[in-house]
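Quick question, first post here. What does this chain look like in 3D?
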Amino acid sequence: MPYSAVTPEMVARLVKDDSQLILPTLILEHLPLHAQIIFFGALLSVIMSTASGTLLAPSVTISENVLRGLVGEMSDRRFLWMTRAVVVCFAFLVTGYAVYTDATIHKMVENAYKITLSAAFTPLVFGLYWRRATTQGAAAAIVAGLATWISLELTAPDGLIAPQFAGLLASIAAMLLGSLAPQRYGVPQRPA
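> Answer (accepted):
Ran it through. Tokens below.
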């Protein structure tokens, strides 16, 4: 059975309707059944792996670094149940967002990494590589990065500087200022 050639008209039609359908249409129209099964199996595997990591990473981070500090000492069993509850909450939030948004999968992933860049990247890097980094600096970096990113995303998404990059710069500045300022939040300094 001869394969039909990929036509610019087909691509133009799919770009107009939904550009995400170009690759699946090409696979369905131009590959044999066994190759289609391999492609779509691999695609589902990638989606499930990404969803799993995206769901578990923030849940464990919040449970371990935020809630454990707020709740205090707890048994491993209680911590496990708390982490499970956070995973379920994140699952509902993410599912709700995915169902009610008109954004493409690519745009949703892009938005998820904007949050990571503006809020989590600076405390992670400074915590690993700068000896003077403190909990107060990390908290200031998270708050400043998120506040700057969200405010610019809402007011000037196409401004002179990308909102997530402005959030990154604000996060760096807040990390430096929060870590170098007198410590009022976080782990108390050990006496000399």
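The mean pLDDT is 86.
Residues 104-192 form one domain.
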